[in-house]
Amino acid sequence: MDDVVSIDTLAAVAAVALIAAVLAGLLPRLPVPQVVLLLAGGILIGPDVLALGTPADVRVLADVGLGFVFLLAGYEIDLRLFREDAGRRALLAWAVSFGLAAGVVGLLGAAGVVESFLPIALGLTTTALGTLLPVLREAGLLRGRLGRYLLATGGVGELLPVLVIAVFLGSQGRASAVVALGGVAVLALALGLLRHGVREGSRLADVVRAGQNETAQITLRGTILLLLALVAVTDRFHLDAVLGAFLAGLVLRHWVGTAAPLLESKLDAVGYGFFVPLFFVYSGMSLDLHAIGEAPLAVVMFLLLLLAVRGGPVLLVHRGALAWRERCQCALVSATALPVLVALTEIAVRSGTLTSEDAAALVGAGAVTVLVLPALVVTLARRAAEPSPQPSPGGPVGPGR
Hints:
Helix 7 (144-168) packs parallel to helix 15 (324-334) and helix 8 runs parallel beside helix 11 (241-256). The chain has helices spanning 7-26, 34-45, 59-76, 85-110, 118-123, 129-138, 144-168, 174-197, 203-210, 218-236, 241-256, 263-286, 289-294, 296-317, 324-334, 339-351, 356-385. The longest helix is centred in the C-terminal third of the chain and has 30 residues, at 356-385. It has one domain: Na+/H+ antiporter like fold (Up-down Bundle), CATH 1.20.1530. It is mainly α. It is a multi-pass membrane protein. This is Transporter, CPA2 family.
């Protein structure tokens, strides 16, 4: 009965989520973001430390939380962004990253260091935009010009690997995967076009507008239905479920428009208030510390490759568009990977294209990026926000004065 939720484990997860939020509020200059506290709390209550519960106890709710992570990530991305300089540079950087990853992993495979090609190469190009969103929003980094480059870089690093996973690493043939992927896209488009059927001034439009608040919450219920429907369809087609959630966010941004100005705050309340922190605590509980501890050198190798293969091209491609500090922030954001990496390794191990040892090392490296790199991004933002020291009225004071 893996689908049964344990109330004891759920209470422990809720306690970790609350404590992480309180600590983040009491210690605003804490060098790590709240996501790190949630992952660490999950490790603490997980089977490898205090053993207060197992990941299976809350897996169903964590799956919904994962859906919310990618829905909110898709909702943040405006597809028009990819017609701008930020989007074009993000696409070029990802293409360079994938080429580098293919070459490096090919050499490692020829040397016998790794046994799998496509899953590892693809894993080195992923970005955990959904994981980073709470951190970037708290630090105020999604606003302004830098925010558009960060969103474009993260969106490309999340969406393109998911598409490749769905086509090349799924449990069915490639041709059927492409057909299924097209079917999901058509469904998403059809759901988006439904918005035009709700004409202003019509009875249905009046009902939707009147039911946005109070006990009806029509738009919020419709959003959750859209999320669950697309996730269910992708699961039915044996595609990665995060694809459905990401598409749901993209569709929702177009579908809602300005018709429900309060919807975003409601999604934040439901997602960040419960489901998203639950997913991150679950991710901490799921980390196999023993497998990671048995291959520390592989973890370090994949960590360095993530920084070089994913972050390096971003650093170079954004020359002339961003200042050095902003380019460093973009590169660190691009190299942060965990949720897509976890999904990729699970699918690849299940399909027999990735060994469990390489999967554990990849996930371990991804966990380190989530634990370390977002904190560096926030630190750079805080240093940029600090006022520069003003010279004294009498001028600089030299030695001996």
